Amino acid sequence: MVVALPENEAQILAILAVCRQFQVPIVPRGAGTGLSGGATPIAGGLVLSTARLNKIIRLDAYARYAVVQPGVRNLAVSDAAAQYGLFYAPDPSSQLACTIGGNVAENSGGVHCLKYGLTHPNVLGVRLITMEGEILELGGTAPDAPGLDLLSLVIGSEGLLGILTEVTLKLLPMAQTAQVIVASFERIEDAGRAVENIIAHGIIPAGLEMMDQTSVRMVEPFARAGYDTEAAAILLCESDGNANEVIDEVARVSQILTQAGARHLRISYSEEERQKLWSGRKNAFPAAGRISPDYYCVDGTIPRKHLAKMLTAIEAMSVRYGLACANVFHAGDGNLHPLILFDANQANAFDTAEKMGAEILALCVELGGTITGEHGVGIEKLNSMCVQFSAEELSVFEGVKCAFDPARLLNPEKAIPTLHRCAEYGRMHVTRGKSRFPELPRF
Amino acid sequence: MVVALPENEAQILAILAVCRQFQVPIVPRGAGTGLSGGATPIAGGLVLSTARLNKIIRLDAYARYAVVQPGVRNLAVSDAAAQYGLFYAPDPSSQLACTIGGNVAENSGGVHCLKYGLTHPNVLGVRLITMEGEILELGGTAPDAPGLDLLSLVIGSEGLLGILTEVTLKLLPMAQTAQVIVASFERIEDAGRAVENIIAHGIIPAGLEMMDQTSVRMVEPFARAGYDTEAAAILLCESDGNANEVIDEVARVSQILTQAGARHLRISYSEEERQKLWSGRKNAFPAAGRISPDYYCVDGTIPRKHLAKMLTAIEAMSVRYGLACANVFHAGDGNLHPLILFDANQANAFDTAEKMGAEILALCVELGGTITGEHGVGIEKLNSMCVQFSAEELSVFEGVKCAFDPARLLNPEKAIPTLHRCAEYGRMHVTRGKSRFPELPRF
């Protein structure tokens, strides 16, 4: 119905008051780069854009934090911090455009989140306004806060609990140096085992990504990163830190990769080469456009040990559904991004792609994982929420939401499905007594 | 009124059902080592002890997690993991006795939490039963979960939201080696500056503790750790990791300490010596008994840069209140533990000690810190909650609590003060518009 672009808190308070008075739902929106539909406008609603809330309010290089408005772009924070040898760690692929407010709403991740954490551990505090017009300041620069952990609750709350007006971000020292290893494997199982062994040895790489043969062949002619197009799967493993740490870690990782069956290792020996080796992975998604008019990026997470099993299952689904699938993984934490390739001009292709995606997510849950790694629930995963959570758990989500927004005006019909929706979806599981850790003995 | 010691979930469900029926409040209790009164029984209530829920259900050394019942002792987890070269990082001083359930309730810390985090980042998931008898499984082995972050909400919720039945803990590889540096300073300001500089250089030590002259003189004749009793303050800084990392970090830290004005450095060169050098700090609290019949341990947090200012202010308070105070700090994160020494046999001494503690906490908030570092709110800090939070913020806490426990039967009158109490306490601040980051410009 209308888009509002406030410039300050007073204007936000006024917008909220009007919407309360006329019971108009509000959809907060950053850059609109989200992948699960969390910022999709609602008919009869108001879109509250953060486009004009784009100032870095303060950057304290000594205490290592920055206070920014929610519309500040992710990369703009690191750009501003670079002169002090600092950076903001969470690096979603969309960081050129996506906003900090959106990152907080989605608890966004990125390649380097394996080592540096998702958005959550990198946010020190927020200031937000609830639908009722209450101003809350959550968190701070102390390591713990008394009372209930509302800061953690707000991070990843997908626009349901309040409108952010300030976010305090942790800044980290830039690593002195970094090297990436690209390893080729003849068998997917070997690549999966290599991932497990790296983590089991207590190594937390700066990044640990896997690409299957389909995705490698999709991107190599475009990016010319030098990937092995005959490999069943490749791993990219980055190490950062001071020179001694990196030398040590690269040696240990190389040994683990070789012992797991890597047929070839390529190690970067300059910053230029490091960027080049990453350029394939970074261009994987856009490269889908070379071979397919459309793709659907699925986002799910599984325990690392099931990586190979999942890839095999997806191959079988490809045959069944008649759709090719290129797989890119944040292997270090088991977050998978199958890119289902389809042509929307073909009758039913869109629905078929969605069905295949839903089956992949259901398998994630079955293997002890979860229906989203980093893209959020939004609209896209509402039905899958019915599969992952019990009626009791959904009720608690709803109760907490209502503690912040009893009128349910903030981003309705996103993220938390109603019990009614779940009943209709027909997949309501009664999970009383069912463990999320499938191999554990029950009481 | 009664103590229940359930052995399994079925018994817990039965206890909850009876208490719901008769509207009997429940106080969950682990080892009772908490320092803020969170497990203090209530007249007419039931104490639900976790003493019989003391099994380690499963330990997966490869995937590096352990699933334990809430009554398992903190140290028992590391003891069980040691054979795999793993340990559970959060190490409260009471770890010999305190339970994991208590640790989760309080988001407990310890000396090594500066590097490894408080309880929060070390808990992967929980299984709990709400007062209404609902079983919730929160978290899991994936790095992020969809929906609202209820796991984070439960950690640190001080027994208000549910009864834990299983906790999944992250296990970390034991460091190959560790060294501690003990540095002596002639001036408190130098010690404070050294702490800031260590952190500002991007070093996160395994532990960074400060003791003032009073606490050093209190413990040295007992522990004979070799501390400099003439120093105004001493710092203990530990480095752990593989041999190269530790050599490197110890060299950098030593340089920083010296440049900040350290008069003397002592570095451990054997595990035996490392333990000996820590024994003073570890015995600081018990050593108070050498010179005082009673002490009151205050727990607050301030931004690191105000350490020296706070110690000076406490010295002045000592004079005003007529009570000596020995100070021990988790300097790395600004968490202070003033030990106010008093004799409860003296008329009004107890009240005077409490008043001095409250003034110290009020100063913490004024300096931009918080009223608890790691001991929780319990009963002790209820009034201070009125100082730190606005009416709106307290209302949101209450709303979230009611989403879990609408009957308010779980641990009532703990952690979250009523607005009525705050009004009576007379310290209600209207914080609308007031920033928790005092130096920041406001809109």
Chain-wise SSE layout:
The structure is a homodimer of 443-residue chains.
Chain A: E1 2-4, H1 9-22, E2 26-29, E3 46-49, E4 56-60, E5 65-68, H2 74-81, E6 86-87, H3 100-106, H4 113-116, E7 123-129, E8 135-139, H5 150-154, E9 163-170, E10 172-173, E11 177-185, H6 188-200, E12 207-212, H7 213-223, E13 233-241, H8 243-260, E14 264-267, H9 271-282, H10 284-291, E15 294-297, E16 300-301, H11 307-321, E17 325-330, E18 335-342, H12 349-366, H13 382-388, H14 391-404, H15 419-425
Parallel strand pairs in A: 1-3, 2-3
Antiparallel strand pairs in A: 4-5, 5-9, 6-10, 7-8, 7-9, 11-13, 11-14, 12-13, 12-17, 15-18, 16-18, 17-18
Helix pairs in contact in A: 6-8, 6-11, 7-9, 7-10, 11-12, 13-15
Describe this structure as you would to a colleague:
The structure is a homodimer of 443-residue chains. Chain A has 443 residues and is of the alpha+beta class. The first copy, chain A, folds into three domains: 2-173, 2-Layer Sandwich (Uridine Diphospho-n-acetylenolpyruvylglucosamine Reductase, domain 3), CATH 3.30.465; 177-284, 2-Layer Sandwich (Alpha-Beta Plaits), CATH 3.30.70; 292-382, Alpha-Beta Plaits. The first copy, chain A, contains 15 helices and 18 strands. Chain A has helices at residues 9-22, 74-81, 100-106, 113-116, 150-154, 188-200, 213-223, 243-260, 271-282, 284-291, 307-321, 349-366, 382-388, 391-404, 419-425, and strands spanning 2-4, 26-29, 46-49, 56-60, 65-68, 86-87, 123-129, 135-139, 163-170, 172-173, 177-185, 207-212, 233-241, 264-267, 294-297, 300-301, 325-330, 335-342. In chain A, the strands form four sheets. In chain A, strands 11, 12, 13, 14, 15, 16, 17 and 18 form an eight-stranded antiparallel beta sheet that branches. In chain A, a hairpin with a 5-residue loop joins strand 7 and strand 8. The radius of gyration of chain A is 22 Å and the shape is globular. In chain A, 54% of the residues are buried. Residues 428-443 of chain A have low confidence and may be disordered. Chains A and B meet through strand 8, helix 5, strand 10, helix 6 and helix 8 of A and strand 8, helix 5, strand 10, helix 6 and helix 8 of B.
